[in-house]
Amino acid sequence: xxxxxxxxxxxxxxIACAEGNTSQGFSFFSSLLQMLAALAIVVGLILITRHxxxxxxxxxxxxxxxSKHIRLVETRYISPKKSxxxxxxxxxYLLLSSAGDNLSLVKQIDMLEEIEVIEDSGIxxxxxxxxxxx
Length: 134
Fold this sequence. Notes:
By secondary structure, this protein is of the alpha+beta class. It has helices at 2-20, 28-58, 128-133; strands spanning 70-79, 82-89, 92-99, 102-109.
């Protein structure tokens, strides 16, 4: 089934060109077929590139983005330029306040029981297109 669809998509431009050689000079149907074929080729190339790039980069270490000693636990925005940030640094939890360009320490949390830490499940939160491409 996939092979038949692929052959049809590859033959669409030639069908459209043959349809376009009429004496009228312009055929809406042939233009539509050419546009759909071009769209199918572009989307197919995007999906193929994404598939092979995931396979290629899956085995590479991602150490550039992984921090061993500093971890952002949570950020709560109070207003557009003000937020509270909970950070784990070397096993200690720090509550920071961010206001514009200023960053200040609000409280150092010593007891782990005071806060509930929920680990990331590794699943990206993405929109409709992210779920569609997976």
